[in-house]
Design goal:
- The protein is an alpha/beta fold.
- Strands 2-1-3-6-4-5 form a six-stranded mixed β-sheet, with helices on both faces.
- The longest helix has 21 residues.
- Helix 7 links the parallel strand 4 and strand 5.
- It contains ten helices and six strands.
- The protein folds into two domains: 56 residues, no CATH class; 174 residues, 3-Layer(aba) Sandwich (Aminopeptidase), CATH 3.40.630.40.
- The chain is 47% helix and 15% strand.
- The N and C termini lie far apart (75 Å).
- The protein binds zinc ion.
Length: 259
């Protein structure tokens, strides 16, 4: 029997094999296999979400921050909160920062806090300032003001400092899980300004956020020990953009009911 190439190509069994091959490629992936594949990829993103891994640059890192929630349960923030307690860090004899600071933290924090207050009150929100001038307010008093303000959230404004002059970036802190939606939006909006780098959204027990009975966020708006960032922070347009980014996060959380 002759087995030339043309006879093989014409053979009915060969044609049948080709048809099956085409059908196999064209048929959709079985549902269970697709489900397994998608769940394993979402686990991967969850893993890359935690801790400092969140700050990894690249598509996957950015996608992880956007797509995946925290690993803890998030109770709803005070739904429809009507008041924002704005806390300008430091004041009076407490300058904030360290000896290497290239600008005054207490002054820039107050200016940014006042800008935030103006934006929020123009939008009809009630605001309470823990300080509105260069006065020293103990941390316990700041917390007490927030805890005695019904139906409120708390936002503390700071600028950062480091003995490493290269340190730069936005950091956003919260303690109680209920503050996560507001903290995450504030951090995202600050990064969207492209005014500085991502030094991560962090859950830490700083006194002013740890002892709150309301949802609270602490913002570190760049390093005053870094020459570039100190120059930026001394620019009023930088401070206004930061205040706008934070205010927009407040509006978003109110609109979403804290989800
Ligand atoms: Zn500070």
């Amino acid at each position: 029997m002759s087995l030339s190439l043309s006879s093989i190509l014409r053979h009915p069994w060969f044609r049948c094999f080709c048809l099956l091959l085409v059908l196999g490629l064209a048929l959709p992936e079985p549902v269970e296999a697709a489900r397994k594949r998608s769940s394993s990829s979402s686990r991967k993103y969850t893993k890359s979400k935690g801790g400092k891994g969140k700050g990894k640059k690249g598509k996957r890192g950015r996608r992880a921050r956007r797509d995946v929630g925290p690993k803890f349960a998030v109770p709803p923030i005070q739904r429809g909160f009507s008041t924002v307690v704005i806390d300008a860090g430091h004041g009076g004899h407490d300058n904030g920062g360290i000896r290497q600071n290239l600008a005054s933290e207490k002054e820039l924090a107050l200016d940014t806090a006042i800008r935030l207050q103006k934006i929020l009150s123009r939008a009809g929100l009630r605001t309470v300032m823990t300080r509105s001038d260069d006065t020293f307010i103990p941390l316990g008093t700041r917390v007490a003001i927030a805890n005695s303000t019904p139906n409120s959230v708390f936002i503390s404004i700071h600028y950062n400092a480091s003995f490493n002059p290269d340190a730069r970036g936005f950091e956003t802190y919260f303690s109680h899980p209920s503050a996560y939606p507001l903290a995450a939006r504030i951090h995202r909006n600050l990064l969207a300004t492209r005014l500085s780098e991502d030094r991560f959204l962090r859950r830490r027990g700083f006194y002013v956020v740890r002892n709150l009975k309301v949802s609270g966020v602490l913002c570190e708006l760049g390093f005053l020990t870094n020459a570039d960032e100190a120059r930026n922070a001394l620019n009023r347009s930088f401070r206004q953009k930061c205040a706008e980014a934070i205010a927009e996060a407040v509006f978003e959380v109110r609109r979403s009911g804290g989800e």
